[in-house]
Every structure is written in structure tokens, then in C-alpha cells.
Amino acid sequence: MLYSPVVEAAPDERPRPKMSGPALMVIFGASGDLAQRKLLPALYNLVQKGLLPADFTILGYSRTPYSDDEFRELARHGVEKHADVEFQESAWAAFAQGIFYVAGGYDDPAGFARLQARITELEGFRPTGKNRLFYLSTPPSVYEAVATQLGQADLVRPAGESCWTRLVVEKPFGRDLASAHALNDHLLRIFDEDQIYRIDHYLGKETVQNILVFRFANGIFEPVWNRNYVEHVQITVSESIGVEQRGGYYDKSGALRDMVQNHMLQLVSLIGMEPPVAFDAKAVRDQKVNLLRSIRPLAPQEVGNYLVRAQYAPGLLNGDALPAYTDEEGVAADSTTETYVAWKLEIDNWRWNGVPFYLRTGKALPYKVSEIAIYFRRAPHMLFSASNHDAEHISRNVLLIRIQPDEGISLKISAKQPGPAVKLQPVNMAFHYGSSFGSTPPDAYQRLLLDVVLGDGTLFTRRDEVEVAWDRVSRVLDGWQMQEAEARAQGAPLRLPSYPAGSWGPDAADHLLAQEDQIWRRDL
Fold first, then answer.
1. Strand partners, 311
2. Distance CA 300, CA 356 (A)
3. Cα separation, 21 vs 48, whole angstroms
4. 293-306: per-residue pLDDT in tens?
């Protein structure tokens, strides 16, 4: 059953997207993968859609020596391959006139002196409004060095001036609570909090943003969005690949740091937060922080009761053989880094008391899926149980918010099958972006980059938000360290549970839900 949105206004009466003012954007790490696949194509798309000025200025900075023309040619390859608007020579020629490049190191005063001179030069003949946006598309290890050099080169203007300076920081934002706190302290010695935009691309996805609209713009859902009607919540972020060529990096990170601390806890906060007093950055982020603070902190000895971690074993993935995680290049043979984690997360507040949030994420799983499934409580009695032995199983309503692929929202209900017998069958009421709006959602970076230039921090994480999330995750890491220390003390190194590549995870993750007589959603 498919529903399309009701159009209540003529096309020319619909709210129009706001176009940004002029600015100069410096991309640190401009020769890297993120800049070429995401940032430059997103900027090109925004310009062609009329959301950024046609003379928006881009200045690349990285260690690789390029001339302006060489960097423009590199950027062209990325835009041609990844832009979601038609590539046109005339449009590219106009866009490329605003692309420039400076080579230098990330802790190199001479390089930043060249950068400062080039910015001054460009501001002399380009319409930038002297607004400066610095984007850290670099390894996290150089975040502090770049910020320091920006400050020493006098490139950071104080907040509140007529022209602005903003800094965008990519995840991961620290490795634990202590490192996140230290990084925040360092950045805030150079920038004000309102100048820092900590980016999580999940928050730029249309379906994620639609969670707030769905909850607070539809009067039928908010009254049942609580412990009285919701039985439990499942959040799944699965990947259908192994670590590929990133084994060395991944072995220092793991699924908890890589996915749970940022993406998945952001989803938890949006699903669980209280209604904000306004739809602005401060009000929304205040409520997200309140929700994260309500997540029950775990003592180290409790971690094993609430979390399962595992590594993928050999198996078939998309028809190809995949080796065990510990046999991947760059991974230590005795590694205890998890490629899968499941967490029974409890929220200690009035709305969600007693409602478990089950989180799972992993690599080498059957499909690439990101979704939120909200399971409502069954009806208090079953009128149809005598005529349908399966009624108890299918009577529960499930609200499914699919983030990727096939973005959309559906609600599972029970309906009578045609025929003389009263036989129930689950059916879905659903909308999908492609069919309902006639187009696929734009890439998340388009929305987020536009918001940075507009100065809207609603979809970016604040310092306290980052640190509360890391506090809850660091407690889990402490518990795992305790488990490993206990194993070493007994003379037997800890070996994590395993799951075959191409399966949905270890048996222990199923047992986590079975304790509450629940099962993971399988029909993904």
C-alpha cells in the first residue's frame, strides 16, 4: 500500500531553499578521497542548483604539489564521476574559475604563510565577503596542528564580526572521552564553540532529518511515542563488505568507535529526544544532549550483560570468499578489535523507562542497510486468535524508518485477507522518496555544507553532545579492557566470538534479545 504526499500549495507557493552569501572555503586534504568523492561534487551541485553563489571560491590545501590548473583537472574527475546533476562544460568552466590551490604541510608555518598570502590575494579580487570556511578533510592526527597553524597565521577572526570564520571537523572526534575532551579544549583555544561544526554525515541524510518532522509534525504519533505503547526499538547499521584495504586503520578503531559512538547514538538521540521548544540549533541540540545523558552508564563488570562483540570468520560474501578478520592484511593475528557489536541500551527517563533500544552494527553482513524499527506493544487481547493461529505473531505493529537504501518510512499493520475466512496478514503502509517526490534525496554533504555557509548548526554536534556520547562508549571500552586483563591473568588471551562472513552476526547477539523474548528483524 503506497501513499504519496498531499500537495496543499501550488508549486510557486512552496518555501524556497535559502541561498547562501559569498564565502571562501579552504579544504585541507583537498587531494584526498573525501574531497574528491564528496566535497567538491557537493559544492558543484549546490552552485548548479542556485544554493551557492556562482562565484563561490574554493582553495585546496594539501601536501601534494599541484598548480591551480592541475588541481582543477583533479577536481573535474571527481565532479564528473560523483555529481548528481548533469555535467556541462559551460557550467564546469564557470565553476572551475573559482578553484585554486596551495601546497603545504599541516604543521608547516611556511605553508600556512603561503596559505595566508593566497587568501589575502583571493579576497582582493574574488567576491568572498571575507567570510572564511576551513574544512578539515584530513587524518584526525593533524586536527590540532592545523588549528594551531590557522591561529598563528592570523587566519581566524573572532566570532561576532561582520565577516565570519568557521571550522568543519570530520569524525572521528577523538578515540575516547579523554582524547575528545583534549581536542575540544585545543580547538576552543582558537575558535569559539559557535564557530566549530563537528560533522556527522548521517545527520545530513533526508530520512534522518525526517525523523523530527515525522515525530513532531504528525499529531497521531507523538501520543504513542513512549513506554506505554512502544515495546522496544531496534537500530541496525550493517555493511556488506569486510575491512578491505583498511585493515590497519580499522584494527585501531573497531565497530564501537567507528559506528556506534557517532552515527548510531545520533539516531538514538533523534528517536528518543523530547520535543524542542523551537526548531533551531540550540533547542534541538539541548534535547539531544538530555537524551544522551539519560542513557544508562554501565559499570565495567556489567558490560558483558549488555553488549556482544565479535569478529567475522571466513565465509561467502556476495558470492566471493572472504577470509577471517584476523587474516586480513594489516590486522594482528591476536586482535581483539570487534567487527560486530550489539548493545542492549537502556534509557533512564520518564518517556523510555523499561523500553530497550537494541543496537547492532557490523561488517561482512548480508546487506548494506541502515534502519530504525520501532516495535509497538501488542493489542491487549486478540479477537481473532481462534480463527488464526498466527494472529499473536503478526498482531504487533512495526514502524520502520529506512535510511539506506530505498529511503522511506513504512508502518506494518494487520489486515484481513480476501475470502470467506477471517485470516490476518501483515501489510505495509509506506512512502518512499523516489516514488513520492519523483527524485532521490541529494547526498548528505550538500545539505551539511550549505548549512555551514548559512551558519545553521542544527545538524552538527556540540561539544557536550560529543563528550556525553564518548562517556557512555568509554565505559564500554573500560569493561572490555577489564575482560582482556582478566583473560591474560588466567594465562589465556581473550578470543572474541565469531560469525561467518555473510551471516547476521554471532549467536550471542540473538541471545541478547532472547532474554526478553524478542528476535532481531530479519526481513531486511
1. 498
2. 19
3. 15
4. 999 999 999 999 99
- Residue whose C-alpha cell reads 499529531 in the numeric block: 219
Distance from the Cα of residue 143 to its chain's centroid? 20
- The residues, ordered by sequence, that sit 6+ positions from 112 with a Cβ below 8 Å of its Cβ are 104, 149, 150, 152, 153, 155
Cβ neighbours for 12, distance < 8 A, ≥ 6 positions apart: none
The mean per-residue pLDDT over the stretch 25-51 comes to 95
CA distance 358 to 225: 17
Query: How do residues 204-234 score in pLDDT, each as one tens digit?
Result: 888 888 898 889 988 899 899 999 999 999 9
Amino acid at residue number 481? Q
Task: Output the CA–CA distances (angstroms, integers) from residue 16 to 49, 85, 302, 397, in the order listed.
Answer: 12, 19, 51, 36
Return the exposure string of 294-331: e unless at least 16 CB atoms fall within 10 Å of the residue's CB, then b: bbeebeeeebeebbbbbbbbbbebeeeebebbbebeeb
Degrees (nearest 5) of the Cα angle 291, 296, 299? 150
Q: Does the structure show a pLDDT above 50 at 25? A: yes
Between 427 and 457, where is the model more confident?
457
> How far apart (Å, rounded) are the C-alpha atoms in residues 477 and 260?
12
Q: What angle do CA 474, 477, 483 make, to 5 degrees?
A: 150
Q: What is the DSSP string of 276-326?
A: PSSSSHHHHHHHHHHHHHHBPPPPGGGHHHHEEEEEEESEEETTEEE--GG
Which positions ≥6 away from 44 have C-beta within 8 Å? Answer: 79, 83, 85, 92, 95
pLDDT band at residue 202 under the 50/70/90 scheme: confident
Distance between CA 349 and CA 65 in Å, rounded? 54
User: d(Cα 42, Cα 435) in Å, to the nearest integer?
Assistant: 23
End-to-end CA distance of the chain: 18
> In Å, what is the CA distance from 440 to each residue of 100, 207, 405, 407, 443?
31, 11, 11, 8, 9
Strand duo 320-322 + 340-345: pairing: unpaired
In angstroms, the CA 239 to CA 406 distance is 15
| Catalytic residue list | 263
- Which pLDDT score is estimated for 209? 84
Contacts of 239 (CB under 8 A, 6+ apart): 361, 362, 363, 364, 365, 368
Judging by beta carbons within 10 Å of its beta carbon (0-12, 13-18, 19+), is residue 226 exposed, middle or buried? Answer: middle
Q: Are strands 132-136 and 24-28 parallel, antiparallel or unpaired?
A: parallel
